[in-house]
Design brief:
transmembrane helix; 301 residues; 16 helices; transmembrane; membrane; mainly alpha
Length: 301
């Protein structure tokens, strides 16, 4: 650069630089003046293209107020409870992670609407089921088979007739189930493993969503996955854990029998057929507490 200035002089260098700047500026001005399309025309061309047509239409569409029909089963009492459950599910399992992504209420609202459609479709299908044969035959037979297998497994475990040492009650139960099903079916891998249980529930929920959701909702993979995981992890798994809790089952039995008077003969018969020392000891302690309470109320000592 110094050699160029010393050779041609300072005036020539400045003149050359200004000439280059003016040429570039004139070329840009010429391109701008020959540009016939305005930004509105460009936007119009975009709206006419096939790939961005729907995107532009959504952007131009005014935002409407999110509304949904709160009717689900036709019973106001049941509908209010179900609406409360849906609201709590979305509040506890959707908003904690969705609030960090966006403040738009459309996605939680769409999940709520899809869940409502599933409940409505499920309720309509339930009305078409003939419950009398199932409740009087199918359910009774399944419960009797389950109870029979449990008693056989417990008797086999107490009698020590198992060929393998250290086998627990669950293994004996499912071995007997496999024998009863003639080696065609055994549910131990689903009932004893939490991961397999969730995989099975996901597949079951996927089939139910295919039968109960609309075609538009089912083909939306993201929405379908969210609804499926909510049903499995927030509804089905806690429900099964609660239904298999012995304390909860005992509380239900007590609640169902609270209006049935328990006579002394029934109580003594229950004590005679009970072979669990822990239960007998707990009953004995409760009886002593009840006797002490009654004696404290007796004015005669």
């Amino acid at each position: 650069f110094v050699l160029f200035i010393t050779t041609f002089g300072f005036v020539v260098c400045v003149s050359t630089f200004l000439a280059i700047v003016f040429v570039l500026f004139g070329g840009l001005a010429l391109l701008f003046t020959r540009q016939e399309k305005s930004m509105g025309d460009v936007y119009k061309d975009i709206t006419e293209s096939h790939g961005l047509y729907k995107v532009v239409a959504v952007m131009r569409k005014p935002r409407s107020q999110l509304k949904s029909d709160r009717r689900l089963t036709g019973s106001q009492i049941i509908d209010e409870q179900l609406q409360g459950i849906l609201t709590y599910l979305i509040r506890d399992y959707v908003y904690p992670w969705y609030d960090s992504l966006s403040s738009d209420e459309e996605v939680p609202h769409q999940i709520h609407v899809t869940a409502q459609r599933v409940i409505i479709s499920f309720a309509n299908r339930m009305k078409d089921v003939d419950w009398i044969p199932y409740l009087t035959t199918g359910l009774v037979d399944d419960a009797a088979s389950h109870l029979r297998l449990f008693r056989q497994a417990r008797a086999k475990m107490k009698g020590g007739t198992s060929s393998r040492g250290g086998v627990d009650l669950e293994s004996l139960f499912f071995d007997l189930e496999l024998t009863m099903e003639e080696s065609h079916l055994c549910r131990d891998h689903v009932c004893l493993d939490a991961d397999n249980e969730k995989s099975f529930l996901r597949e079951l929920t996927q089939v139910l969503l295919y039968l109960l959701t609309s075609e538009e909702d089912f083909h939306c993979s993201t929405l379908l996955c969210l609804v499926r995981e909510l049903c499995v992890n927030s509804v089905l798994v806690p429900l099964l854990d609660l239904a298999s809790d012995p304390d909860y089952i005992n509380q239900i039995i007590i609640w169902l029998c609270k209006d049935i008077p328990v006579t002394s003969e029934v109580f003594l018969t229950t004590l005679r057929v009970t072979d669990n020392p822990v239960e007998l000891t707990a009953t004995k302690e409760l009886l002593y507490k009840e006797m002490a309470s009654l004696r404290s109320r007796d004015s005669g000592g």
